[in-house]
Amino acid sequence: MTSHFVRRAVCPGCGHTGATPLLDLPYDRGAVRGYVADYYVRACDLDAWLDGGRYQVDRCTRCGLFFQREVPDGALAELLYDKWLSQGGPPDRDPFFAAQLAAPARSRDGHELFAAAAALGRPVERLRVLDYGMGWGLWAIVASRLGATSFGYDLAESRQVHARAHGVTTVRLEEIPTLRLDFVNADQVFEHLPEPREVLRLLSLALAPGGILKIAVPRAHRIAERLAAFDWQVRRHAEIMPIHPLEHLNAFNEASLAAFAATEGLAPMRVPRRAYLAFLRSPAAIPTRPAALAKALARPLYHRFSRTNLYVWLRRVG
């Protein structure tokens, strides 16, 4: 039977060959087989797709990245994201999605765009931005409605059609390096990529001088301890979410993300507090509900100290 897994020979973050094995279990039987069947309730023909694959988690001895040694091939990845994880069609009637688009300046993504504009020293209307791996394109649509030149990319054609219908210019991969972008949004993307350095290089080439690449990923907090203590029968999914079987192939912490960024001459920058608060300069951007305003004001602390999410802005060094 054909294996639907590809083995990665080097660290996907820094390219180093040395790694410390943390866990190595078969996908097609035992504890992990039961876990996958329980988690992916839409999965079909599991035995055929998982045959011969292994859930092997290693840690790079140079940069500290936690990564899955074996990753789904193209066919399994397409099935995973288009079928097993699919939540149906466009979310236009979803209350959260609709609320964000009804008041884009007050939305979380709108506030991030105001912060980017403040850090770059120009109004939102003059920004050229890309939402990479955009899903249904909420961030890119908000950017478009705030007046930015907004581009979007997603592997799924249905997502691209949806984004175009909402004013976003969708692009092909080969077009991205020509875009001269001020800000790139890569939110919950890099943990999924079998070859993250190729995508980092692509996005790095697209940045205009002084441009910013934002990466947000699950934080690799105490991964080794969590894996060692994980009860595959109780299946508390959140405990291993940063290195979740089949999906989260790369688990970054601050050090490994910085080493990863350095491979393309990028380095983390501190988001200025004045940038975080830039939305306060626009009455239309100030949340009307006290709880929403408090959440917006607390966002810098969440981005800095959250144990579940790692949020970083990157800029070219020199």
What are the key terms here?
single chain, 318 residues, alpha/beta, Rossmann fold, 7-stranded mixed beta sheet, 4-stranded antiparallel beta sheet, 12 helices, 13 strands, 22% strand
Structural summary, described in words:
The chain is an alpha/beta fold and 318 residues long. It has a domain at 95-221 and 246-316: Vaccinia Virus protein VP39 (Rossmann fold, 3-Layer(aba) Sandwich), CATH 3.40.50.150. Helix content is 35%, strand content 22%. The chain has 12 helices and 13 strands. The chain has helices at residues 30-39, 46-50, 74-84, 95-102, 108-120, 138-145, 157-165, 196-206, 223-229, 254-262, 273-276, 290-305, and strands at residues 5-7, 19-26, 54-60, 66-68, 70-72, 128-132, 149-153, 169-170, 181-187, 207-218, 250-251, 266-269, 309-316. The strands form 3 sheets. A 7-stranded mixed sheet has the order 8-7-6-9-10-13-12. Helix 8 links the parallel strand 9 and strand 10 (207-218). The longest helix is centred in the last third of the chain and has 16 residues, at 290-305. It is globular, with a radius of gyration of 20 Å. The model has no long low-confidence stretch (mean pLDDT 95).
